[in-house]
């Protein structure tokens, strides 16, 4: 058995101890993964009570750095100082004992257990559930994080789950709290109240490492920022004194490119029609769809905004054909597709691309050329049931060339590509199938800025060629950028789609939190629909 | 009524190996590891227990030796399934094939031998208890121990913090690891416990139930135990009851063979296997309910 | 820990073919330890163990005879395994082949040369029908095919026992549980003079060839591979999982059924209750050892056959239990799974010397 403070009880006398010591200091951290140098010579200094942002785009090495601090990854070089003493946490347990708390982007919670049980699991010793519930209530009250300790996690919304994670971290009395992309799952209003909580925490002396790629949020909340690009620190600044553009330059090494303006035409006739679609969820903790209706015309992109877990997965399953629906609920150009499977729908022109690349829109262990075959039309790639391998490779090569996919050849397994390159391959594959309608979820999730731009551009061009495009995403900014109209999904219900120009972030935020029944919001959506 | 007593006792005895083996597998599966090597571990446990008795050991030593053998056999499986992240189905099959061969290899000298019946002192003492003594006196102490194991597993899973941690590991090893629990060590412990219980179950068959060793003695009981865990939807109480249900079915089948001479004995012998299939079908039909109870990470390797 | 395993950037092709060899070497090492524990000189005993069976043409024929069912069933199972369908019931499906083919042979034994091919077909159908039960239960009721197919092994075994102990028992057989000898029309032709190797090995190799083309070169084979490698991707692409289950189960069952006929119409020449020598289980090892690829399954079947025969010889010549062959088969699969880990992971040294103060803690 390792000592309870094996990682923490490490002292060295050679460092000059100057008051006040930094809460956390990293010097020259390097972490190499088989295919990539994730962190290279990273320095970081966090003072007590400071809200410090780690900024960088996807793949810049933010997550790796957090894993190093939290004992989930061991650095290949460099040192880490905690309150002036050198430490080397080897497991999350050691990091926790040191005083590091973490709130995960993909929560580390157990659906089948209650809030109190979840929290008890993370605390040392054998906390009794009754007194623990009181402590939960106390912390919840102090920081404005209302939760019911007896509720099961599986029945909670994403925002509530995040509160549980924060409370759990706080009950461990952390000296440093790591927040990994905390706002990606929240409505704009919930973001505001999260910031209030975090400021209160910092005032109590807890340092906060705030990982984000949303520069406006960082400017609003943080007093210091360390910017990463390709595993290296490219800048340390006071975000309040910077502009989003100047920070973006440090982040991507160039000016942010905007989407090329589209050759706008008026949208055409209704193409993809969803008509009062209701569907139960196969997941015991999922969200059923209630009378979802949406009409997408030829030549327009409709965005579906919403906090994750509000029926997006179920809607995607229904549209892609992975689950069939009651007759008449899904029509393409007047033709009923609701009872058809994915292949029949694709043949008739309705394609889809879910965000889950490893194991759904691509088979990670199969080579790229076979992944091109996954959704290819049988007529072009097979003869009498036999594969026409030259044709298949040609199709794969075309995807790779037209969409700038960087891969180690067509025989490379799909899983060996970076997130951005694989997503370009998947979206490219679907677009080259020339669909009349395309449904995508989170098209730029976990994708670097360059690939994201390529993908958004490709979607816009598909729209300009007269296709109907549906983008289901949790990133409101992305939807505001590429959609012609936006609808909101909450609790398995869909609001009417409103033209982008009339979209108001606050109203969308309210709709995302499911407060459709408040008269004001209803009035607003009704007004918007009437325009 | 007195005529029912031998049947009851026989059913309890026939169900006991399943109690051990299924509870052991249940614990392993609640930690997220499916071990299809139960049959192989039971075979080896049966041989080791039997050999220990033949070597002059008492039943407690024989049971202990069998449990140790089962755990020892589970160790390479755990190394494959937990440390190396190998396919758990394939690794479990390998364990069953290996264990079955190892059992017949070790058991070669003992084929056809039988143990002299010798009711233990404990058992005779229990027979003196007024009332319950009538039943208890006819049951081997290993049957009582299986009740204690059931109580212990139930208490562990639902009342002990360690059990809560184990269930958490089975639901989401990544989350459990992130909040500081040693997922690998917990899974190892669960698999080894499953192995020890399978070994004990095997020894119960060869030492108490049949009191002899032949090849093919275990005859699929290990697989039935795996099926029982599904049947029980991963809950120990149902597992316990299910084991006796099967024990009862086995005994009914034996009595049926004598009572219904017109029915081929092979058909009667096939009943426990057919019953297992039927029970699996009935329980698996309700996919949603199965999904609600199955440990979410079952069969999925985890590496930090 | 100074060593750490980490994922390779991409699976190593070389390792995927090297790991069976590594596993074989490790198994040989275990065998030598076992021989040494038994008080024998390890190297020469292993040499005798492995080479005695192949000392002459007859021995080579025996190898082909044993390898044929292993290859045939292994190829059938591999198609299922590639599709993520876990058919563990080949043993029972083989027995059904014995029952169906045996019935035909007993009823129409001397009716003409058509009997033998008809038996093979009937046996295949019998095996496929037996495999259809778990397939139906899985696709219709979501019941695990692993457990149902396995339970049916015991049922098939008992059915055959009932027949041979009862209606099919040879009246002239001194009350032994065995059928009358099959008519020569019902026997498989020998392909190598002066051995017992029959046409089944040709069928097995042909089946491997067909399976190779099917799985690698047809769209249906591609669909099965996707279903096994990434079930979510198969659902997304619209490749029905149910069809994969049916194809996977039925091919395995058919192959096992044909192999069952191969036993009674080959070396046995009559029907015994123990018609199968555990081929249904050993073929699982063959399938894995052959990388679930028909081209690998042929040599894997030969190797496993060698181990089985060597086990028999060990009993005769070395006085060791014949189950030692099975023991090595199981060990081989263990080591193979362990070595396979090295195709997707690699072992690397890491600098992780603990800090001085940590040691004191």
Automatic annotation (TrEMBL), chain A:
<keyword id="KW-0547">Nucleotide-binding</keyword>
<dbReference type="InterPro" id="IPR003439">
    <property type="entry name" value="ABC_transporter-like_ATP-bd"/>
</dbReference>
<dbReference type="InterPro" id="IPR050107">
    <property type="entry name" value="ABC_carbohydrate_import_ATPase"/>
</dbReference>
<feature type="domain" description="ABC transporter">
    <location>
        <begin position="24"/>
        <end position="255"/>
    </location>
</feature>
<dbReference type="InterPro" id="IPR003593">
    <property type="entry name" value="AAA+_ATPase"/>
</dbReference>
<dbReference type="InterPro" id="IPR017871">
    <property type="entry name" value="ABC_transporter-like_CS"/>
</dbReference>
<dbReference type="Pfam" id="PF00005">
    <property type="entry name" value="ABC_tran"/>
</dbReference>
<dbReference type="InterPro" id="IPR027417">
    <property type="entry name" value="P-loop_NTPase"/>
</dbReference>
<feature type="region of interest" description="Disordered">
    <location>
        <begin position="1"/>
        <end position="20"/>
    </location>
</feature>
<feature type="domain" description="ABC transporter">
    <location>
        <begin position="271"/>
        <end position="516"/>
    </location>
</feature>
<dbReference type="GO" id="GO:0005524">
    <property type="term" value="F:ATP binding"/>
</dbReference>
<protein>
    <submittedName>
        <fullName>Nucleoside ABC transporter ATP-binding protein</fullName>
    </submittedName>
</protein>
<keyword id="KW-0067">ATP-binding</keyword>
<dbReference type="GO" id="GO:0016887">
    <property type="term" value="F:ATP hydrolysis activity"/>
</dbReference>
TrEMBL record, chain B:
<dbReference type="GO" id="GO:0022857">
    <property type="term" value="F:transmembrane transporter activity"/>
</dbReference>
<feature type="transmembrane region" description="Helical">
    <location>
        <begin position="64"/>
        <end position="86"/>
    </location>
</feature>
<dbReference type="Pfam" id="PF02653">
    <property type="entry name" value="BPD_transp_2"/>
</dbReference>
<feature type="transmembrane region" description="Helical">
    <location>
        <begin position="241"/>
        <end position="261"/>
    </location>
</feature>
<feature type="transmembrane region" description="Helical">
    <location>
        <begin position="188"/>
        <end position="212"/>
    </location>
</feature>
<dbReference type="InterPro" id="IPR001851">
    <property type="entry name" value="ABC_transp_permease"/>
</dbReference>
<feature type="transmembrane region" description="Helical">
    <location>
        <begin position="141"/>
        <end position="158"/>
    </location>
</feature>
<dbReference type="GO" id="GO:0005886">
    <property type="term" value="C:plasma membrane"/>
</dbReference>
<feature type="transmembrane region" description="Helical">
    <location>
        <begin position="218"/>
        <end position="234"/>
    </location>
</feature>
<keyword id="KW-1003">Cell membrane</keyword>
<protein>
    <submittedName>
        <fullName>Nucleoside ABC transporter membrane protein</fullName>
    </submittedName>
</protein>
<feature type="transmembrane region" description="Helical">
    <location>
        <begin position="267"/>
        <end position="283"/>
    </location>
</feature>
<feature type="transmembrane region" description="Helical">
    <location>
        <begin position="31"/>
        <end position="52"/>
    </location>
</feature>
<keyword id="KW-0812">Transmembrane</keyword>
<keyword id="KW-0472">Membrane</keyword>
TrEMBL record, chain C:
<feature type="transmembrane region" description="Helical">
    <location>
        <begin position="297"/>
        <end position="318"/>
    </location>
</feature>
<dbReference type="Pfam" id="PF02653">
    <property type="entry name" value="BPD_transp_2"/>
</dbReference>
<dbReference type="GO" id="GO:0022857">
    <property type="term" value="F:transmembrane transporter activity"/>
</dbReference>
<feature type="transmembrane region" description="Helical">
    <location>
        <begin position="197"/>
        <end position="215"/>
    </location>
</feature>
<feature type="transmembrane region" description="Helical">
    <location>
        <begin position="146"/>
        <end position="165"/>
    </location>
</feature>
<feature type="transmembrane region" description="Helical">
    <location>
        <begin position="118"/>
        <end position="137"/>
    </location>
</feature>
<feature type="transmembrane region" description="Helical">
    <location>
        <begin position="244"/>
        <end position="265"/>
    </location>
</feature>
<feature type="transmembrane region" description="Helical">
    <location>
        <begin position="21"/>
        <end position="37"/>
    </location>
</feature>
<feature type="transmembrane region" description="Helical">
    <location>
        <begin position="324"/>
        <end position="342"/>
    </location>
</feature>
<feature type="transmembrane region" description="Helical">
    <location>
        <begin position="57"/>
        <end position="81"/>
    </location>
</feature>
<dbReference type="GO" id="GO:0005886">
    <property type="term" value="C:plasma membrane"/>
</dbReference>
<protein>
    <submittedName>
        <fullName>Nucleoside ABC transporter membrane protein</fullName>
    </submittedName>
</protein>
<keyword id="KW-0472">Membrane</keyword>
<keyword id="KW-1003">Cell membrane</keyword>
<keyword id="KW-0812">Transmembrane</keyword>
